[in-house]
What does this fold into?
Amino acid sequence: MNTIKHIRAREILASGGSPTVEVEVILENGTKGCASVSYGASAGSKEAFVLRDEDPKRYYGKGMLKAVANVNEKIAPLIIGHDPSDQRGIDKLMIDADGTENKKNFGANAILGVSMAVARAAALDANLELYQYLDSCYMLHATFDRLPKPMVVMVEGGVHADKSTDLQEYLISALHDDWPAKENVRMEMEIYEALKQNLKKIGVSTNVGNEGAFAPFGIASNEKPLEYLMEAITAAGYKPGSDAGLSIDAAASEFCAPNPSPQRASGSGVINNYLYQLKTEKRLLDAGHLLKMYSEWFKKYPIVTFEDGLSEFDWQNWPKLLAIAQTDTVRAESRTSPIKIVTDDLTVTNTKLLKKAIEMRAANAILIKLNQAGTVTETMDACILAKKNNFATIPSHRGGGETNDTFLVDLAVAIGAEWIKVGPTRGERVCKYNRLMKIEELLSTNHK
Ligand code: PGA
Ligand code: ZN
It folds into this structure.
């Protein structure tokens, strides 16, 4: 058996300019798997723990030398000598040795780096592409006849930019399952270019935010980007609602605060325990009024997915949002399928929280982020549970610190995800689309 011989971690830089963790796993025969870990800017409170040094003399406290040392000194001795193809066993070993609910001890950044690098080494050792390896490792029985479609951030605000929208992301989601990935990618980039030209024409700034999407300084309202995206789709020569739909990630936890005088809104069943502050429009809305605004957008625009429309603490109102999205009367005429209500901060790629969302009928889709879970196995288990319960899966990049690692693309292909969510430009984002197009090419040459 070709066992794990050596594990080495190092501090590298992520896209935001702060450190993250890279891990190399080397097998007896010299096969080497390497992986790096991303982290968020608007992270959910229940995500697996990112261990930072908190040493103000280095990187303003954001160094990751403690996580690096945990890999080299604590995790490596546990894992060396193990069979790299026992991904589930290795992940469990690390979870048990850490011993905490959220990986606070070793740091999820340390554990995940090892977990991903082990999978890469095992895939290389088996002479398989990573997506093929994940398929066989987790017995997914993938057919690979439909690749995930790109969902591209076009306008960003919230904590990803200064003085842009309160809602965090406005996206274009490709809608044709039967188009080649490279055609869906081309459409997205043409819409991005059309959007840029339109914004320039009307004198709106085309500076970009964390994810490479436009972050229009001083934008008039949170609805404006929806109008811009509709114009851009048409200007690029595509049809809104049939070629390309609109998506939103409100990241509402970021503009939500407890309501000092909570009341049940009469008749609607909405519980107003939280207030939502839209600074752009100088409005403070209770959940009832926020849902009303969303419902109007659902009627007006071909919105296909809607992520974190409510705060991660406002669980009680999520079923209401799903019910609104599923009501026929709020569907735009051009819509081809019902709106997907997507959880991100609400479920943080965690099977326990996903189960709760399924039981409460709080949503019908889930965003998937490896570093929210903290191991490959827990991420895959969240995907498998979602699939079993007819939740759409959307593997995603991170806004805060992304790396050139493309693991999430192979994972998305292996699980047959509906979309992959990534920013439009910058190396750490476009490498994801490039990997998707490469996989398409590999599949066409019998790498199933
Ligand atoms: P983050 O945001 O990665 O910066 O937390 C992305 C998202 O909320 O989807
Ligand atoms: Zn999100």
Summary: The chain is about 35% helix and 15% strand.
